[in-house]
Amino acid sequence: xxxxxxxxxxxxxxxxxxxxxxxxxxxxxAGYSMxxxxxxxxxxxxxxxxxxxxLFDVSHMGQLLLRGPDAAAALESLxxxxxxxxxxxxxxxxxxxxEQGGILDDxxxxxxxxxxxxxxxxxxxxxxxxxxxxxxxxxCEVVPLPERALLALQGPQAAAALSRLIPGVTQLVFxxxxxxxxxxxxxxxxxxGYTGEDxxxxxxxxxxxxxxxxxxxxxxxxxPIGLGARNSLRLEAxxxxxxxxxxxSTTPVEAALNWAMQKVRRTGGEREGxxxxxxxxxxxxxxxxxxxxxxxxxxxxERIPVxxxxxxxxxxxxxxxxxxxxxLSPTLNQPVALAYVEPDYAAIDTEIFAxxxxxxxxxxxxxTPFVPTRYYRG
Length: 378
Fold this sequence. Notes:
Blueprint: H1 16-21, E1 25-29, E2 32-37, H2 42-51, E3 53-57, E4 62-67, H3 71-76, E5 91-97, E6 103-111, E7 115-120, H4 125-136, E8 141-144, E9 148-154, H5 158-165, E10 177-182, E11 185-190, E12 199-205, H6 206-217, E13 222-224, H7 227-236, H8 278-286, E14 294-300, E15 311-313, E16 319-329, E17 334-341, E18 351-356, E19 359-366
Parallel strand pairs: 3-13
Antiparallel strand pairs: 1-2, 3-9, 4-7, 4-8, 5-6, 6-7, 9-12, 10-11, 11-12, 14-17, 14-19, 15-16, 15-18, 16-17, 18-19
Helix pairs in contact: 2-7
């Protein structure tokens, strides 16, 4: 999306009219007109999600199906991830890579038995679909789902609110999903999200989205939440934002996403390699000393917000990295950031400096998440 884009260039989600009715401030995002915040403001929306339940419109995301008996093996050929062994209605995080091991996109996928259901980032969805189709050829059918909306309900009271509309959702645990029905509309719901809280992502027909959203907003726990708070919530949870913290210039190992690559796909595993960039990624996993940089979490030691793309320096004023995401954490009331640094500065408790308007702000390397996650694992 360029700054020159006009509102007429932007696509709308099925909830566009509802956002306007709720007084949202709309901004261009991933080619769509999206709500960045509502009248209560970013801080209140963020804190409401942490204590109750927030409703997010994420219909700009890409939804697609892979169908056919070879679908799992076909998708696995594009990612350093175990797709073949994923259980029925289980969800997993995945990474599409290029031939240099760079990250084309991160995504979520579910084994639904008859198909694989994928959710990809909104700004990448057309390129992702093209990449997947070209990468797997005729091994399976690729079916985009542009007619479906996607909502996220997040927060410690999300299950209580959603279960009044769909009682069966309480049986789901983190990273599982299932088919549900609401007033004759076919829904697919996963217990997952992008905030670090318990919550759900709900795929549903676009024509049912506004009525379903209003039914959720009628629950006393639920408030509408915009993109601004979605970003601050995911950063507190230590989750990467594609285009900021990961992109084609970063490998999964540099991005500290080793956990997303199961043993079966690593060196010595039953299905070692066989994905784009495998030689580079497997070499980095085997020899971490070969890395030129690592992604880390940082907390500022002074109450001065540090934002991307601030430069990071060592005690001697030498450039050692840069911030990729940073803001004042509403939960901690302390500046937090994700950054890439040279490996010598990646150890926990290492002190470095962020340059903010020409002045050094002391920061310390810390483990992520910054705010403990509260996923429901049963």
